[in-house]
Amino acid sequence: MEMSSTTTVASSYYNVTKFAQNFSNDSNGGPFECNQEINTNGLSDFIVYGIFINLIGLFGIFGNAISMIILSRPQMKSSINYLLIGLARCDTVLIIIAKKRNKNKSRKVAIQKARIK
């Protein structure tokens, strides 16, 4: 009795056809991860996430550092410049956090592609 109730719960909770498709030799559907198709355009992912986003982040950090240096000079002391320095600091922190999230995303994509092979 317990076996049939467990099977009923599992079949209603999971999509059994997609689960079986992962273990079949059919090439028409391809493997699925969490009921989503796996991204297979690796070159475009590498160019976008590996090169462009990193270059934009590095230019952003460099530009913010230059603006913080210039705005913190003694002759540039004003309340507006202090606000701009704070804005540049917050922007730099945001860029660093975004780059770390991008790094984690690219690792997940690489792990998924390694599972396919």
UniProtKB/TrEMBL annotation:
Keyword Membrane: yes
TM annotation in the entry: 46-73, 79-98
GO MF terms, alphabetically ordered: G protein-coupled peptide receptor activity
Keywords of the record: Membrane, Receptor, Transmembrane, Transmembrane helix
Keyword DNA damage among record annotations: no
InterPro entries the UniProt entry points to: 7TM_GPCR_serpentine_rcpt_Srw, GPCR-Ligand_Int
Pfam family, one: 7TM_GPCR_Srw
PANTHER family: FMRFAMIDE RECEPTOR, FMRFAMIDE RECEPTOR-RELATED
The protein's name in its UniProt record: Fmrfamide receptor
Organism: Lasius niger (Black garden ant)
Source organism phylogeny: Eukaryota, Metazoa, Ecdysozoa, Arthropoda, Hexapoda
